[in-house]
Specification:
heterodimer, A: 246 residues, 12 strands, B: mainly beta, 26-stranded antiparallel barrel, 10-stranded mixed β-sheet, 51 strands, globular
Chain lengths: 246, 924
């Protein structure tokens, strides 16, 4: 199998001759959340726990991709003292505009299916190097008012990216959401053989694959029963489901 | 078998329907192939992105296949920018409109590698150069102009640009004729202002393109005219704000140069003011001095009578400073423009004022050979004092009537006055060495002029692409009065012995009052017959009435009241012309051809109000025009052009008058002059390689006039000349130009070479013999520039100039004059804040068969500048002009049977201490 992929890789590189375009590989993203910015000076002064937090929470995710299919899954351990570590992951099938997400709620994992999130991107003229790859800047907008800055690599053909971000003319290797003080940047890219069998929708033993609405209704019921989130609405649950994987 | 076949067909049909049906809403498609011509490669996996112009968001992006091809279907209708990008290549951008049914084939999209470009520029951010359709776009910040630098300094750094010493800008091998700021003219058509006063750090992008004529842009039918244009896009935060410059320079005594400029931009509102007061007699002052004219931003209806009229609305001759003496100039201007209704309604206004005072002297030596082998050696000297004052204003208002039509109203006017005083002495010897005459002359001239012009145009577009209708109404009025007080004393000597013979004096006032009015109207219609073939037709009418009253008064003591009837005339000249024209234009992808002609049915009515005689004449004139533009590659093109035109004699040439300010020379008008016809043809070639930074530009042009206006002169043995206008065939003229600029990136060297020639001739009748004179200039120059980024730029140019004069006068030898000039310049930046600049030119004019003196001069200028304040906004500069005090103002020239050399007063050594402050602020 490995030999076959090596052969395939060789073939693509022959076809590509001068310019190598990447269609499959593994990208490691480093995710940084800026605690200092999230909590204000007064918060930190009044709360010794918040004051003890390091400047950044750091975690890692791997993105395995082959053409327009990818899986975004947990990778090596980072240091995230302020967050629980989870096994959340996202499978994207861009050909069919479909994502399947594995998500933890109250200690249990669920799987639900959604369509690819549509983002209006504006391509900018700025470029920068990420993990040794030349990337170009784009600015997108989610939830009408939250700006996202992304850097995509034109040399990687699949139009995917970390989390549920996609739709640029190349793989997104860098991402920043200033509103949430969070960044995703590729730290290394492996082009050597990847096990493509790992690229598939996540499954959880106890859970079937829900639709987003179905799962939101389950959550909504639970929150309501628990009673500790008073002004909960189904819309709020829906948007909560869109949150990041960590 | 049959069954199988029919099954196959129905299967195909079913499949077809299956794929077809969902697409029925949008049957559109766009396709193309992306290639790199440098390596002749098809670029697979290029990104082809469609960006919606409505919100500049990415609609979708695609990749080309292995053959570099792409095809996009089912696109929602709208306006898009298509962006093609490929790693390490400059982006290609093109605006496209997609309808539900458009089938667009973009053909070959040629990509240019940016790798080489990146080597030489410091990239701060973004892609330094991209192609947007036919526009080359430079990101200004990538070229790291120093703080406080103006746009001119920025342009010098852009690959493919050259800024010459006199401020002329060459882009892609061609002279830039127009500079726009955010798409609008800044202070009308005056490129100097924007490059001189705008700061480089206010510029976001510099765009270079070949602009089409206003007419072509409106009608969508290409008429083949191209103007090299630069558009300076301002940074967003500089669009609202003010900026300016204050500079004061003086040597504490005689020389000074003060400048002030301020501009305020607020959304669509633009206001600017400038003032200049200078007495440093800069060379090429007409180029630098910013105030050529307030643009009349409409096209004047041409009635084919050409120069019959003293040209309306153009510059007054006395406004230009001819380079004599030491001028002190005061000049100012103001500009205001605003836009409303999504920039469809616009107002532009400009105002200029200028005053020049100049004193000077000159002397000259020359020889003049007559057809019989005799001739004269002349010597003369003169001093003069001139003053001129002028004001001009212009304005235009453009407003949409509905979404298809616009109305534009323009008006412009000017006032000018001036006077000049001149006194001179001249003497002539004949070929035997005897004096034949000498003359002492003085004159005083005062002149006054005013002019008004207006234009109303209505333009309407129709739904059909290319179909337009336009209406034009024009009026112009021009009034000029000249008073010339001439006084001359001439002495004549016997040619064979040099003994005094007799003397005469002339003491006259010559008054010339001329008035011109013209009315014109035109209706034009254009349409596209097919996708490639357009036609434009027009019908127009123009009437011009000009009155010219020329009165000569003899002077007694200080009174001038005795009118000399034989030297006076009141003449009215009316011309009425019907104009019919049609032009076909063929617009293919690579070639664009225009063929057309105008027909002028002209009637002249010449009335001699003194003699009460009237002459009527009518002509049919033809003005054919053929042009072709061939686009060879992305950055290479060839242009051919031929046009024919009727040349009409001017009123001065027609008016039956003897004009003379000195009895040594009398000019006689001729009312029987016929129109002539001139042919002109040219071929231009240019090629520009943005990657290598090489450009080549060549042109050759010819012209020939049949039955033009020439002169018939009689010179007697005392050197007295009478000249009359007659019709005669001209001599073909020709000129050629070839320039090549290239680049050694590694060595940071930019060599260039230019070769040009200019050959012209004239025929005239001298003492009843036909004389043919020809002259030719050959100019070869080569130069080299070296740039050591942020430290040192050095340059050297050598120029060889040959001037050859022929004449068919028996015994006349071909005269060759040769001179060469070597110029060095150096600019050095050190200790961050200092700048040292120096240039030196060595001018060699060796002796030859016409001139028996070597004349070599060295002109050396230097300056030292230190910047200060935050952002280097302030500068103090010490400059020294002509350090060796070597400027002589000497020139020599051979033209046919005329050999001349002259000296004039010029500014020599001086120093100047200049303090400059640039200011700018953004307003949110």
């Amino acid at each position: 199998m490995k030999r076959f992929f090596f052969f395939l890789l060789l073939l693509t590189s022959i076809v590509a001759n001068a310019q190598d375009f990447i269609t499959r590989g593994k990208i490691e993203f480093e995710i940084k959340r800026n605690n200092k910015k999230i909590y204000s000076e007064t918060d930190r002064a009044n709360n010794p726990y918040l004051a003890s937090l390091p400047e950044f929470d750091i975690s890692y995710r791997d993105l395995l991709f082959s053409w327009n299919q990818s899986v975004y899954q947990p990778a090596r351990k980072g240091s995230t003292p302020s967050r629980y570590i989870n096994e959340n992951s996202v499978y994207s099938d861009l050909d069919n505009q479909r994502v399947v997400k594995k998500i933890q709620n109250m200690g249990e994992y669920y799987v639900y299916e959604d369509s690819v999130k549509k983002i209006k991107w504006k391509i900018e003229n700025e470029t920068r190097k990420i993990a040794g790859w030349e990337c170009r800047k784009a600015i997108g907008r989610i939830y009408d008012s939250v700006y996202v800055v992304a850097f995509y690599c034109p040399e990687i053909v699949p139009q995917g990216g970390p989390e549920m971000f996609s739709g640029l003319p190349g793989m997104i290797l860098g991402l920043a959401i200033p509103r949430y003080y969070t960044t995703w940047f590729a730290t290394k890219i492996e082009l050597a053989s990847i096990d493509e069998s790992k690229i598939g929708p996540p499954v959880v033993k106890k859970s079937k694959t829900y639709s987003k609405r179905e799962l939101a209704e389950i959550y909504f019921k639970r929150y309501k029963d628990a009673g500790w989130w008073k002004d909960i609405t189904i819309e709020k649950v829906m948007s909560m489901l869109d949150s990041y994987t960590f | 078998m049959l069954l199988l076949r029919s099954f196959k067909t129905s299967l195909c049909l079913a499949l077809f329907l299956f794929f077809y049906l969902p697409a029925i809403a949008q049957k559109n498609s766009i396709k193309g192939i992306v290639i790199d011509t440098a390596e002749n490669k098809k670029l697979h996996f290029s990104i082809v992105a469609l960006i919606d112009q409505a919100d500049s968001a990415l609609y979708h992006s695609f990749r080309t296949d292995i053959e570099g091809k792409f095809e996009i279907t089912k696109i929602p209708a709208g306006r898009y920018s298509l962006m093609v990008s490929y790693p390490r290549m400059a982006d290609y951008l093109q605006d496209i409109i997609i309808t539900d049914t458009s089938k667009i084939d973009l053909g070959r999209i040629i990509m240019v590698t940016q790798a080489v470009l990146l080597e030489e520029v410091i990239v701060r951010s973004g892609l330094p150069i991209r192609m947007r359709g036919d526009t080359l776009e430079y990101t200004a910040d990538s070229f790291a102009a120093r703080p406080g630098a103006n746009v001119e300094e920025l342009l010098k750094r852009l690959p493919g640009f050259q800024v010459e010493k006199d401020g002329k800008i060459i882009a892609q091998g061609q002279e830039v004729k127009k500079i726009l700021v955010d798409g609008d003219e800044f202070f009308s058509d005056d490129p100097g202002l924007a490059t001189r006063y705008l700061n480089a750090d206010a510029i976001d992008k510099v765009q270079v393109f070949d602009d089409r004529s206003e007419q072509a842009k409106f009608t969508g039918i290409d008429d083949g005219t191209r103007t090299k244009t630069i558009n300076l896009k301002l940074k967003k935060n500089k669009k609202n704000g003010y900026f300016g410059k204050l500079a004061a320079g003086s040597d504490g005594k005689e020389y000074y140069n003060h400048e002030a400029m301020g501009a305020l931009f607020n959304n669509n509102k633009k206001m600017s003011l400038f003032g200049l007061s200078s007495k440093i007699g800069k060379e090429g002052i007409s180029n630098n001095e910013l105030t050529k004219y307030v643009g009349q931003d409409y096209e004047i209806i041409n009635d084919g009578t050409g120069s019959s009229i003293f040209y309306n609305n153009s510059d007054y001759e006395n406004e230009d400073y001819w380079g004599n003496g030491l001028p002190s100039i005061m000049s100012g201007g103001a500009h205001y423009s605003d836009k409303w209704k999504d920039a469809r309604q616009k107002l532009f206004t400009n105002y200029r004022i200028k005053e020049i005072n100049a004193n000077g002297w000159s002397n000259n030596n020359g020889t003049y050979t007559l057809p019989d082998g005799t001739g004269f050696a002349n010597r003369g000297e003169s001093t003069d004092r001139t003053y001129s004052f002028s004001q001009k204003a212009s304005g235009s208002f453009i407003t949409p009537v509905d979404s298809f039509s616009t109305i534009k109203i323009s008006i412009n006017g000017g006032l000018s006055r001036g006077n000049s005083n001149n006194s001179s002495f001249s003497e002539s010897k004949n070929e035997k060495g005897f004096f034949v005459n000498n003359s002492r002359q003085s004159y005083r001239r005062t002149n006054e002029g005013k002019n008004v012009g207006s234009n109303i145009s209505f333009q309407k577009k129709f739904r059909k692409d290319g179909r337009t209708l336009s209406l034009l109404l024009q009026h112009s009025f021009n009034d000029r009065n000249n008073d010339n007080y001439n006084y001359s004393e001439n002495n004549y000597y016997t040619p064979s012995s040099g003994q005094f013979k007799n003397a005469d004096t002339l003491n006259q006032l010559q008054q010339n009052q001329s008035q011109l009015q013209s009315y014109a109207a035109r209706i034009g219609y254009t349409d596209k017959l097919t996708k490639y073939l357009g036609i434009s037709t027009e019908y127009g009418w123009k009437t011009t009435i000009s009155d010219n009253v020329f009165n000569t008064f003899n002077g007694r003591n200080t009174k001038y009241d005795e009118r000399v009837d034989s030297l006076s005339n009141d003449y009215t000249f009316t011309s009425g012309t019907h104009i019919a024209g049609a032009v076909f234009s063929i617009d293919l992808k690579k070639i664009n051809i225009t063929v057309g002609s105008k027909l002028y049915f002209t009637s002249f009515d010449q009335v001699n109000n003194d003699l009460k005689t009237e002459t009527r004449r009518s002509f049919t004139n033809l003005a054919p025009h053929i042009g072709a533009n061939i686009k060879l590659k992305a950055n290479a093109s060839i242009r051919f052009q031929y046009s024919g035109q009727t040349i009409q004699p001017s009123v001065e040439q027609l008016q039956p008058l003897r004009r003379s300010s000195n009895k040594l020379y009398v000019q006689i008008g001729n009312p029987d002059l016929q129109p002539g016809f001139s042919h002109s043809a040219s071929v231009n070639f240019n090629k520009f390689e943005p990657v290598k930074g090489n450009s080549i530009y060549g042109s050759i042009s010819m012209n020939y006039t049949l039955n033009g206006v020439a002169s018939k002169t009689t010179t007697d043995s005392l050197g007295r000349t009478i000249s009359q206008y007659i019709n005669m065939n001209g001599m073909p003229g020709m000129n050629g130009y070839l320039s090549y600029n290239w680049n050694y990136k590694k060595l940071k060297l930019r060599p260039s070479a230019t070769l040009s020639f200019n050959k012209y001739g004239n025929m005239y009748i001298q003492n009843n013999k036909k004389v043919k004179n020809e002259s030719m200039y050959i100019n070869a120059s080569a130069g080299m520039r070296h740039t050591w980024e942020n430290h040192l730029t050095t340059g050297y140019t050598a120029r060889l100039i040959y001037n050859i004069g022929w004449s068919d006068i028996p015994g006349y030898k071909t005269r060759l004059t040769f001179s060469h000039v070597h110029s060095f310049n150096i600019t050095s930046y050190f200790l961050k804040k200092f700048e040292l600049g120096s240039d030196c030119s060595f001018n060699f004019q060796p002796k030859n068969s016409s001139f028996n003196k070597n004349l070599n001069t060295i002109r050396w200028n230097a300056s030292l500048q230190r910047k200060f304040l935050k952002g280097d906004k302030g500068a103090i500069k010490l400059s020294m002009n002509d350090i060796l005090n070597n400027n002589t103002g000497y020139s020599r020239n051979v033209s046919g049977n005329n050999i001349n050399e002259w000296n004039r007063s010029v500014i020599k050594r001086y120093w100047l201490l200049t303090l400059t402050w640039n200011f700018s602020k953004s307003i949110k």
